[in-house]
Every structure is written in C-alpha cells, then in structure tokens.
Amino acid sequence: MLRALLDIFWDEDVWLPPNTTWEDIAPGPDKAVVYTDYRHLLYPIPLALVLIVLRHTLEKYIFAPFGKSLGIKNTRPKKAPNNPKLESAYAGSPKIKHKQICALAKQLDMSERQVERWWRLRRSQEKPSKLTKFCENAWRCTFYFYNFSYGMFILWDKEWLWDIDQCYIGYPHQGTTSDIWWYYMMSAAFYWALTMSQFWDVRRKDFWQMFVHHIATIALLSFSWVCNLHRIGTLVLLLHDCTDIFLEAAKALKYANYQKLCDALFAVFTVLWIVTRLGIYPFYIIWSTSIRAPMLLPMFAAYYIFNALLCLLLALHMLWTWLILQVAYKSINAGKMEGDIRSSSSDFSDSNHSNHSTPNRLNNKKDT
C-alpha cells in the first residue's frame, strides 16, 4: 500500500520533464554527469543537530563572554508573586481579555490593575535577557556571513551566476559538484535547525510567518534537489543570505548600545532588502523561472510547484518590507532606530514594561 502511494506521489510525469525517467537522472558510475541523489536529503537533519550543538557552544564560550565585555547584562525580568489561582489561569491561556481580568479581580479580591500587573510580570519573566538575544543574533549573523561568503566563493566560476539561462539549458542533465553539495546540505541543515530551535528561541509576533518561511525554504531546497534544479536553487540561497547578515548584526549592536553603528547597518540592510527581495528576486529570479524557463525547456507539473513556493516567499518578503518601511519611517522621525519588527507579543504594554526582543521593534500603539 505504501509503495503504491509513493509511486503515485513520485510520478515521473509530475516531477520530471517529458520523456525523462528517474533512471535517466539517477546517480551512477556509468552516467556522464554526477546527478543529485534524493537520499542525501536525510543528511541535513543530523547536520541540523550538529549546528544546534555548535550554536550553543559558541554562545556559551564566545558570544556570551564577548557580549558581557560590551556591557550587556544577563539580568532577567522580575518574577511575579506566587499566586496559585492566577498561575492556574495563566497556564490555561497566557493571553487574557478584559472580562477575565474583571472576573479574576472579583474572585481574588484584587483590583484590576493588580491582576494586570501580575499578568504582565508573569509573561515577562519567561522572556530571555538581552545577552541571550544578543547571542542568538550573533550566531545567525555568523552563519549568514559564512554561508554567503562560501556561496560567492563556489559560484564565482559557475556560468549560471552570470547567465541565468544556463540554469535551464541542458536541463535535467546538469551535474553537481561537491562544493554545491555542501552548500545545499549546510543551507538545508541551517533551516532545519531554525525550525527546531524556533520553539525555544525568543518568541516573536511573526512566529508562524517565520515557521512557514522555514518550511517553504526547506521544501524549495528539497524539491529543487530531487528534480535536479540545484542551479536556480543556489541563486535563491545566495540572494537571501546577503541581507540577513546586516539585519542580525544591527540587532546585536542594538543590544550592545552601539546606536549609531546599529542605525547605519539598519539603513544598509533596508536598501539591500528592497534591492534584492523586491528588485532582483521578483524581476530577475522569478521572471526567469516564469518567462525564460518555458522558452528554454518543456514545462512539467513540479516546475509550477517550485514556482509557487518562490512566489510564497515573495509574498512574505512584501509583508516584511511593509514592516521594515514603518520602522525606517519611525527611525527617521525619532533620529534613531526604534522598535522591533519581530517582537514578542504582549497583551499589555507601557513605557516601563516593553519587550525589546530585536532592534527593529514595531508597536503601532506606542514608540518604545
């Protein structure tokens, strides 16, 4: 039964161009080129665990001591007073409505303000310290810098970096090399690691948007690898990594109170984001996959799936661009970068109890 379902799912008419079979692109010593092997898609999962261990090692022995040397404190928010009934209500749902506040206040003979304050303290005590968030941003900045540098190094002499039509000419009989293999495997492992660690990292408002982004990226990497579309996949990876370096660096500098340098890097990030994510990505990458590809090779169902995932990423880019531009507008008015696009959600907010989880916080009700 399972074999039959797998045969239906991996139908050659869906995943491969016309007149092409899985045997045609299966790796083997008798083939003229080295084809991708779908079984290698399992490798990124254990590699992701290695990256998680590496991350925690670097955070503990390098990033945390470095952050402390910059004056970043590892202080945690004040804990809420012990109250079993409020604790029980909080365990049921961390979010609370005004009606629940009134009911709890009457039940416990407390004022509504006291219930609100307890709830705020209870929520904030689970939030990580600035040092923890600094370490998280330092790790991501380090990996993005490494991955982008490695990608530029290995793609510099590849013909499809300079002529995107080479992604389609000769497809699907395009061989892969060991450097491309490592680029794909490490990139996939990183997004697997982000997907796993997202559940214990700093909780932000766009938790599910980021979760969809990570899953869509993993799906893109997997489908492009199985279908031997690794050439266009490497271009998408390279384009996405370059801007994230500046974003994560700006966040880390924000926690270290290097405000001017943080503002400068955020300005560079904003320009690069717009140029790459709303310029090069849709008008070069997606235009190529949508317009040029059908001119150079016969279309097949999987290619439309691949293109749909690229468009899903573009939709997420447009959403985040709107948030980034709002932060940039507020920053210009305030004279420095304020707020956080990707912040922890909170039911109550005031000037004394805000969650500065990253340097580009967006709060429509107030300026931090």
TrEMBL record:
Residues 343-357 have a biased composition (Low complexity). It comes from Bicyclus anynana. Coiled coil: none annotated. The chain crosses the membrane at residues 181-200, 207-226, 265-287, 299-325. InterPro entries: HD, Homeodomain-like_sf, Lag1/Lac1-like, TLC-dom. PANTHER family: LD18904P, LONGEVITY ASSURANCE FACTOR 1 LAG1. Residues 88-130 bind DNA. Keywords: DNA-binding, Endoplasmic reticulum, Homeobox, Lipid metabolism, Membrane, Nucleus, Transferase, Transmembrane, Transmembrane helix. Residues 132-333 form the TLC domain. It is found in: Endoplasmic reticulum membrane; Nucleus. It comes from the Eukaryota. Residues 343-368 are annotated as: Disordered. The lineage of its organism: Eukaryota, Metazoa, Ecdysozoa, Arthropoda, Hexapoda. Its main location: endoplasmic reticulum. Residues 86-129 form the Homeobox domain. This is Ceramide synthase 5 isoform X2. Gene3D superfamilies: Homeodomain-like. It is a multi-pass membrane protein. Pathway: Sphingolipid metabolism; Lipid metabolism; sphingolipid metabolism.
